[in-house]
Amino acid sequence: MTPNKENFIKAIYELGGDHSVISNKKLVNNLSISAASVTEMNARLLKEKLISHVPYRGVKLTSSGIRIAHQLKRKHRIWEVFLFEKLGYDWNEVHADADLLEHVSSDLLIERLNDFLDEPKFDPHGGVIPNKDGSLPETSTFPLTDVGTGKPFKIKEVDDDKEFLNYLLEKDIQLGDRYTLTDVEPFDGPITLETPEGRQITIGHKAAFKILVDYVTE
Amino acid sequence: MTPNKENFIKAIYELGGDHSVISNKKLVNNLSISAASVTEMNARLLKEKLISHVPYRGVKLTSSGIRIAHQLKRKHRIWEVFLFEKLGYDWNEVHADADLLEHVSSDLLIERLNDFLDEPKFDPHGGVIPNKDGSLPETSTFPLTDVGTGKPFKIKEVDDDKEFLNYLLEKDIQLGDRYTLTDVEPFDGPITLETPEGRQITIGHKAAFKILVDYVTE
DNA sequence: ATATATTTTTAGGATATCCTAAAAACGTTC
DNA sequence: GAACGTTTTTAGGATATCCTAAAAATATAT
Ligand SMILES: [Mn+2]
Ligand SMILES: [Mn+2]
Ligand SMILES: [Mn+2]
Ligand SMILES: [Mn+2]
């Protein structure tokens, strides 16, 4: 396994390759490499049985592939917690360094780090940290676009993208914030939230889809 | 710069390449790669002006090369402090992980880590941590083989080699220990130390050379 | 259904890193 | 200083990763 292959598997996973077939095109855009390089890497991962491949259609992770993706995500997210909590990184700064550290982290290192951080369950964006064995803890979040009007909900996880995180900072939307939905415009139109104090925030459909929430259960 | 090149420069440095010409043979042994690969890497580093090269003689670091070696050592040693102090690694466990982490450490990461660790001056083996600008703090240590009989001295630094560290553990020799020299056999023979409590320890000349000390000044 | 546009694959190269085996240079020993 | 042993370099390959350009397959639109 090389950093390259690991990043490729992670990209497939993040595009939904654990449950559906991902086109080369999507990987080309996501990884910013040539189409030829994607075809080539596909062949390599196929030989190692980490993906299945339907020619001219795309690739899907095998169970081994999914396990590797989860283990890599575990490393990535534990590092993010460390950078955020111990080294004082900002929300939107942690990703880049974690993306490098994840590939040079021995099992010993990750488990010691996990202990040192008191076994965190979520990364700084609310992403759940996979278990040591490569399984995923249960979560009950859903996209903000699926919220019903009236019921109060909490922000549980947001997309780990630097620009998007900056946008949320502008809008003053934070993990754990509590809102109710007051308006949804049709045809994937803007969504308006209201804080308990009555402040209103309007965001687009695409942005809302990058925010995962859960209903408040009291 | 790649991890490979960085390790090569570090190897040259550790063999004394900051002040003398290092033969290919030494690098072959140290890095466990073929002689052909050393010749090849020499050519690459020469082109980047990180080393000077005397054909059939060997290589020496330029000032740029030395600066890179020091900055890498800084990263390596700061990571070692972290692994040792915060993650509970043993003395002889820190090196392997630090050797990987050093190549994926942004300046931001290292400086934040340095702050988090309260700006340590030495790594867990007593190695001095180079300054941010690539310069070396002054130290006044010398090999145990050069100690005079009678004068008390302290263990300041030991060779960062797993087997050697295990040997020191067996002999119960630790950083900061205070001894006096009671016997030195001629022809690079064994050296005998005595603790303040009168316990005697005898070690060979080669091992003694891997231990740096300084006289106690009270 | 055919033309057009898009996507994927193949073909042919480039670079970094590694290797083994042979040739050349150097050092040592009598 | 010739012979032998050691070290370095050169020659020729291998693999991983990347690329561009052309060819093949698939999807879309009329
Ligand atoms: Mn991230
Ligand atoms: Mn990565
Ligand atoms: Mn070390
Ligand atoms: Mn290293």
Automatic annotation (TrEMBL), chains A, B:
Belongs to the DtxR/MntR family. The keyword Repressor applies. The lineage of its organism: Bacteria, Bacillati, Bacillota, Bacilli, Lactobacillales. It is found in: Cytoplasm. Signal peptide: none annotated. This is Manganese transport regulator. GO terms for cellular component: cytoplasm. PANTHER family: IRON (METAL) DEPENDENT REPRESSOR, DTXR FAMILY, TRANSCRIPTIONAL REGULATOR MNTR. Homodimer. GO terms for molecular function: DNA binding; DNA-binding transcription factor activity; protein dimerization activity; transition metal ion binding. It comes from Alkalibacterium putridalgicola. The keyword Protein transport does not apply. Residues 1-62 form the HTH dtxR-type domain. Keywords: Activator, Cytoplasm, DNA-binding, Manganese, Repressor, Transcription, Transcription regulation. Its main location: cytoplasm. SMART domains: FeoA (SM00899), HTH_DTXR (SM00529).
